[in-house]
Design brief:
Layout (H helix, E strand, L loop, with lengths): L1 E8 L2 H11 L8 E7 L5 E7 L3 H12 L3 E7 L11
Antiparallel strand pairs: 1-3, 1-4, 2-3
Helix pairs in contact: 1-2
């Protein structure tokens, strides 16, 4: 499944630094498909493919929770346009 992590970022430098470090430690079988921020840096969207939303949440929060508040959703892949596979 594609898991969307939508973050309200309070510390841009800490958030992106933490996620860059976390990238090499993804849960087994996970693939990071997208990481993008708004131009003002206060919002971010990350898409990670994995078979467990809870595992993505645990992983992501373990690295980014000090720098952002994040909501997690399973993407509606059947109705998506341009969703990376």
């Amino acid at each position: 499944m594609h898991v969307m992590a939508i973050s309200a970022v309070s510390d841009q430098d800490g958030f992106w630094s933490s996620l860059k470090g976390a990238h090499g430690r993804l849960p087994k079988g996970a693939k990071w498909k997208l990481a993008v921020a708004s131009t003002d840096g206060t919002k971010a969207v990350n898409v990670i493919v994995h078979d467990s939303l809870d595992a993505v949440r645990s992983f992501f929060e373990g690295h980014a929770s000090a720098f952002a508040t994040t909501e997690f959703f399973e993407a509606d892949a059947a109705n998506a346009v341009g969703l990376p596979k």
